[in-house]
Amino acid sequence: MLKVFLVEDECVVREGLRECIDWARYGFEFCGDAPDGELALPQIRKLRPDILITDIKMPFMDGLALSKLVCAELPETKIILISGHNDFEFAQEAIEIGVEQYLLKPVTKSSLLKTLEDVSRKIDEEREQKAYLRRFQQEGREYEQYARRKFFEQVTSGSLRVSEIYEQAKKLQIDIDAEGYTVILLTLQSRGAAEYSQTLADRLEELMAYLLRYGEYLLFRCNLMTYCIIVKGSGAGLNDAVHRCLENIQRRCGGDEALAWYAAVSDPVARLSELPGCYARVHTILSYRHLLPEQHVLTADVLKKPQRGGLSELDEVDASKADPAIIRSFLQTGMREEIPDFVSEYLSSFGNALNSLLFRQYVLLELRFSAIRAAKSFGYSQEEFLRPLEPAQARAVDADLPELKKSCAAFLRRAIELREEESGNQYKSMLKRALHYIDQNYTDENLSLNAVAKAANSSPNYFSGVFSQEMGQTFVEYLTEKRMARAKELLRYSGKRSSEVAYEVGYRDPRYFSFLFKKTQGCTPSSYRAGNGDGHEAK
């Protein structure tokens, strides 16, 4: 219901206007009244009515002065002025202030009700338009986010020439020009697992909101749990921006024992053409998080520091140095592309001890057992784990160093495959709920990513990542595709007007529907219908 507030200095008139209308019957709530503008203003500020009815001539503060203040403070409040003076100057001033309607006394029930209904319709239209604009902007942001991600993936993979980087950055309105760049890879996960949690979602939302506020940070999502932050700047300014970024991450995540976070930081580079190599190096640096679990900020300088002493004699080897916790951590949160670097660095940490056949066997068996235990925790048997492996690897037989690396990598890869399969099943369950909800509600103009994420029991940020990863397109692209498919059916097989089709598939604004249809289908709705032999143009 729309809230109505009345200001009138004549008590009889005020009571008459208040009592002459059954407010609830016509969709209104009479929320209060006052005898003048001075007493009304504090109540209006508190109640925030949708409609203000006020007399012009009143003591202490007249209706025009009150209207001017309300228009400035509460621009969405519609104002109806009433006056006993048929004076053009009053009307002219009221229009200049932004008053919606102007009524002359005596005000009849019918004239007031008609004015209220006119104002109510205008409020509904404006709210619908604002909701449409918000939805349009949200969809635009999703398209932009996806386009940005693809752009930065191309930049960091080296698939774009420098001139192409500048061209695409300009199209996407990304200011990428700077004297220097530093790449930060941030991974944030629930401790002990790669699964979604509300705490994880909240921290990610906070961090993303912070980073997106500042132009020196260019952000894109690498995968569900990892973000890339390209920090740009010059000299000391670049270093300061990197420091502020890491400080903010530490402040938001460092005190939460439920979260495991790591930030790998590259050395600065001066050229855009150097970013692919920089990105590859920082990925290697990030893989050390499993070997250095207490070191949350990883840099090339950190890795140069001796972490484990090399061992030259088998007798000096402490078997506990082959820490199963390191392997468990990698099996829980590591990525397939990290396996070669991880295996190489994990084995090199034992130094010359790997010259011993006995120690190599020990390391291999420990890793094999850890991988099998991980597979069982994901719901798979030992037989299922071992089945696709080569016979020699499955038995973990004697191996020289190259074969040891190969076998270790095979065990890790197999375990991560099963982990991803198990996670994929969870994703499929989430997507099944989401797709069912979309199927049931895609014609609802108010359907949004937030609503679908809620139906799938997920946060919008996490759901968006899972959806685009598993479906190969954004939520908006999928929804638009589904709506357009239905629109084409209606255009082809029904006599409905284009505007009716638009409304039926979830678009209140026919112009926006036509724009999207042409953008996605390559022709207007009318042309599509005509091209299918209906013999008439849609209107």
Could you describe the 3D structure shown?
Residues 308-320 and 533-539 have low confidence and may be disordered. The chain is of the alpha/beta class and 539 residues long. The two termini are 35 Å apart. Strand 3, helix 3 (63-73) and strand 4 (78-83) form a beta-alpha-beta unit. The protein has four domains: 2-128, 3-Layer(aba) Sandwich (Rossmann fold), CATH 3.40.50.2300; 178-304, Reverse transcriptase/Diguanylate cyclase domain (Alpha-Beta Plaits, 2-Layer Sandwich); 308-430, no CATH class; 442-539, Homeodomain-like (Arc Repressor Mutant, subunit A, Orthogonal Bundle). Helix content is 57%, strand content 11%. The chain is elongated and about 105 Å long. The strands form two sheets. It has a five-stranded parallel beta sheet with strand order 2-1-3-4-5, sandwiched between helices. It has 22 helices and ten strands.
Helix content: 55-70%
What integer value in Å does the Rg equal?
Answer: 33 Å
Mean pLDDT: 82
Q: Name the CATH class of the largest domain.
A: Alpha Beta
Low-pLDDT runs = 308-320, 533-539
User: From the coordinates shown, what is the CATH architecture of the largest domain?
Assistant: 3-Layer(aba) Sandwich
CATH H-level homologous superfamily name of the largest domain: Response regulator
- CATH fold assignment of the largest domain: Rossmann fold
In whole angstroms, the N-to-C terminal distance is 35 Å
Number of domains: 4
Shape: elongated
| Number of E strands | 10
The biggest beta sheet is recorded as: 5 strands, parallel
Structural class: alpha/beta
Beta percentage is: 5-15%
